[in-house]
Design goal:
five-stranded parallel β-sheet; binds xanthosine-5'-monophosphate; globular; Rossmann fold; alpha/beta; GMP Synthetase, Chain A, domain 3; nine-stranded mixed β-sheet; 3 domains
Amino acid sequence: MNRENIIVLDFGGQYSHLITRRIRDLSVYAELLPYDTSADKIASMNPSGIILTGGPNSVYDENSPKPDSKIFDLGIPILGICYGLQIIVDKMGGSITRTDKREYGKAMLSISSEQKLFQGLESNTDVWMSHGDATKILPDNFESIANTENSPYAAIRSNNLFGVQFHPEVTHTKDGRKILSNFIYEICGCKGLWTMDSFVDNTIDKIKTQVGNDSVLCALSGGVDSSTVALLLHKAIGDRLTCVFVDHGLLRKDEAKNVLEIFDKLDIKIIFYNEEDRFLDLLLNVIDPEERRKLIGQEFIKVFEEISKQNGSFKWLAQGTLYPDVIESASTNGPAVTIKTHHNVGGLPENIDFKLIEPFRDLYKDEVRNVARLIELPSEILERHPFPGPGLAVRIIGKFTPEKLTICRESSSIVEEELKKSNLHNTVWQAFAMVGDDKAVGVLGDGRKMGYIVTVRIVESTDAMTADWVKIPYDVLDNISTRITNEVDNVSWVTYAISSKPPSTIEPQ
Ligand code: XMP
């Protein structure tokens, strides 16, 4: 595959993924790698450019993360963003200090030098700053190419080394997209080869070569990711694909029935296993969500190994692992922290009998949706909200019990139904209900009774990396609340979660 590539070195900034996403939105493949990836490895990947991300450290601290200094000898254009700029200054002999003119938030950038990086921009433009350290002395051969009121060195350059103290990747930087586009196209000379059309064609070819005449088992969850994997594999290898759909008892209401009907229509072979009891026994009373994820992940693999033995020789197991799962599950030193162990990666034992096919390992969620649209995944699946692999298990806080599972499932179904009725379902990213151990008094009939508190969470997002709670109209929230307390046994109160990500996450645990 002709993979034009921008390497993004992750220094632990909260926007590292966002930079990668933005570059890909500009039709150039970008890959997020740990900050200490060796220059040899980077050179072997033949990137068109390198971006150094922001990060929480100070370059003058002894243990602050630094890149392999040989990356500066590769002759590849480099753009340092925030902490990334400070690394360049520090490495090239300038100096960085704590400034008494810290900048957080909007600032007006004045461009002082005509540069390809700023091509097509007005000479004054809004940018987003977030730094406490700043350049005090510019290294030899560097020039300041833009400034703000408090930062004389808001953007700097020497040959093909560029640094910006502000964040072009956030939408508050008005011309941020244009600046990144100028870097990758005008400075790095990229052509824009990363499109989902080319991804689909290349991936189908790759699967054909990889699999040869073997048969593939696809772990289907009924969600967009694994269904798209299945449809793509079906296009690549036809009948040699068998999908296995295991009901682990943690699915949404009527989910198994719906998935079976849809795949039947697509003419894709599917074997259904109801393993509800097996999983629920395993999870009973387990409190720790990470432990639940691991138990579910390990049990899944066991189930698949059994199924594989029963159904002939499958060498390959296909699944819908995504790029953030891979990155978030990879514990590096500091940057790219493990936030949650996503079961499809974190739970895999060392020696599994299968070879894995994960065609979407490099993709973000919204890129998968674009693939799904291109290969015409039925809208019933495409319009589904993302759903975690360990299912409702991550939405039950405290001890896992069958009663809380029923409450969670029934309440979530009401949330989704009411959103569909008011035509809001397709406008939000995820909508569900969760339950913990907190109880509150309710009046049921003539008696006062302690019932569970159910919390409704409805968020908007483009890639689940950040999310906002949705300002749902009160009457819709009212219908949801009334129906949940009326229709779901033992629930007395309904609350609405009004936290964004960050600092919260989408799922409660
Ligand atoms: P968080 O809660 O981390 O979720 O903000 C981001 C997205 O990932 C989904 N999610 C999971 N998906 N296994 C999965 O396959 C998991 O363990 C898991 N935890 C969260 C979540 O629904 C959201 O779309």
